[in-house]
Design a protein that fits this description.
Blueprint: E1 3-6, E2 15-18, H1 29-32, E3 41-44, H2 65-77, E4 83-88, H3 90-101, E5 106-112, H4 119-125, H5 130-134, H6 138-144, E6 149-150, H7 153-160, H8 171-181, E7 182-185, E8 188-191, H9 195-203, H10 209-215, E9 220-225, E10 241-246, H11 253-256, H12 259-270
Parallel strand pairs: 2-3, 2-4, 4-5, 5-9, 9-10
Antiparallel strand pairs: 1-3, 6-8, 7-8
Amino acid sequence: MSVLDLGERTRPVDLIFVHANGFNAATYRFLLEPLAGERRVLAPDLRGHGRSTLPAVPAWRRDWHDFREDLVALIDAVDGPPMVLAGHSMGAVAALLAAERRQHRVKSVLMLDPVILPRAASLLMSWPLAGRMARRYPLVAAALRRRTRFKDRKEAIDAYRGRGAFRDWPEQVLADYVSDGFREVDDGVELICAPGWEASNYAAQGHDPWPVLRRMERPVRILKAERGSTCSLGPAQIKGVTVDVVAEGNHFFPMIAPDAAQDALSRTLSSPAQG
């Protein structure tokens, strides 16, 4: 596992931040570096993403427990007092799954527009055949059609700029994503997060975060987008889970309008540990 290590390396880890599906740790450098002046931040590349070289085999994959176990191993590898776990989209859920397994090492969890399906859908996706049904989902189909090679990183940036998920992204954030999102090959650059792996992350929803949220003994705060959110959880649905809406934000508000995310991260890091 490759990990972006920001801040003073002689101090304990304050925050582990986990990226969204298809992205990488470098994508969130702009969000995390302002925190690193007084804190130490680890941002891992999940398997199948960025610079990590852990196996990423999509066949028969049903959940995100592989990400959970990788993050548990990262938590176990660092010493120090309880830390904050946070993430965006898929990364937020992966952080939650790991936090529930290591609650004594976790101060709190901050989730930026996490992928939390409606309760009935989460139950359905836990069935063994649900993964095969998910292949018909538009996000899965779109991921499988993703272009994987470009002449160079500049061509990739030009192809992404202002389109699809990257609409309205600042130029530096897009450049940071592409920097660690591609590897050099003989005829140019190749997308590291293979279409089949990205698609499997959309399809493998058998982990069901609802009971995990109920088992959490540490504070959990969710920031959900006002428009097009992937989070179906509302305020006061689960005890100990705070849900706030980012006004006018969409799923990519951490990239497009990061003030709310940066403020939430700062407040979470500054709050006293509980329990």
